[in-house]
From TrEMBL:
<keyword id="KW-0808">Transferase</keyword>
<dbReference type="GO" id="GO:0032259">
    <property type="term" value="P:methylation"/>
</dbReference>
<dbReference type="GO" id="GO:0008168">
    <property type="term" value="F:methyltransferase activity"/>
</dbReference>
<dbReference type="Pfam" id="PF13489">
    <property type="entry name" value="Methyltransf_23"/>
</dbReference>
<dbReference type="InterPro" id="IPR029063">
    <property type="entry name" value="SAM-dependent_MTases_sf"/>
</dbReference>
<keyword id="KW-0489">Methyltransferase</keyword>
<protein>
    <submittedName>
        <fullName>Class I SAM-dependent methyltransferase</fullName>
    </submittedName>
</protein>
């Protein structure tokens, strides 16, 4: 029996199958996930990320990140300090926040593996196109939430599950590094467990505030 990597519940069922992988869904939090045996190893995973060509000099990439940056920036006090979790090989969101006066720390297990960033508190934490890659999202999100000051924000960008039929033809599941898939219901469930206020400013953005 498979346990849910978000809530650890054992009540999971088959959700989808294709020629590459299997996908299961948790009956409690509704997370859809790939079994551990079908994940890439770290070297394979990094090889995929190394092909990413993101850069703060790319206006299109900035516009893409703007879907999270703009609604979050409006909620921040001047000088609020943040952490960009899972910044990737071409950190850009952190540059955008620093340009408007928000000091930023970076963490990425492959490209910025400085764990000292987890020894301080933050006014906000961002994770853009990150949670779908996490093997243990329950543990990782709990760690991030513990670093956020009261009243602070956790802002996540990830495309959301829209149902079994849409899932079967969804381009998002073709990326072999994508192993966890959140729906709006999943975020509502997790936010309720953590006593967070949750809003969805865009189809792939969720902002949760710590009360």
């Amino acid at each position: 029996m498979l346990s849910c990597p978000l809530c650890a519940n054992d009540n999971t069922v088959a959700y989808h199958h294709d020629k590459r992988r299997d996908y299961h869904q948790c009956a409690t939090c509704e997370l859809v996930f790939v079994p551990p045996s079908q994940r890439l190893d770290p070297a394979q995973e990094k090889a995929v990320y190394d092909r990413h060509k993101n850069s703060p000099d790319d206006p299109g990439y900035r516009r893409f990140l703007g879907r999270l940056f703009e609604p979050l920036q409006k909620r921040l006090a001047p000088g609020a300090c943040g952490l960009d979790f899972g910044a990737g090989p071409g950190p850009t969101l952190s540059v955008m926040f620093e340009e408007v006066g928000h000091p930023m720390a970076l963490y990425d297990p492959f490209y910025a593996p400085d764990t000292s960033v987890f020894e301080r508190d933050y006014d906000f934490i961002t994770a853009t196109e990150v949670v779908e890659h996490l093997f243990a999202p329950g543990d990782e999100l709990a760690r991030l939430l513990a670093l956020i000051k009261p009243g602070g924000f956790l802002a996540i960008m990830t495309k959301r599950v829209q149902g079994p039929e849409a899932f079967a033809r969804w381009h998002y599941i073709l990326d072999p590094t994508h192993v966890c898939f959140f729906s709006e219901e999943t975020f509502h469930w997790w936010a309720k467990q953590q006593a967070l206020v949750v809003v969805f400013p865009h189809a792939d953005v969720v902002i949760m505030q710590k009360t």
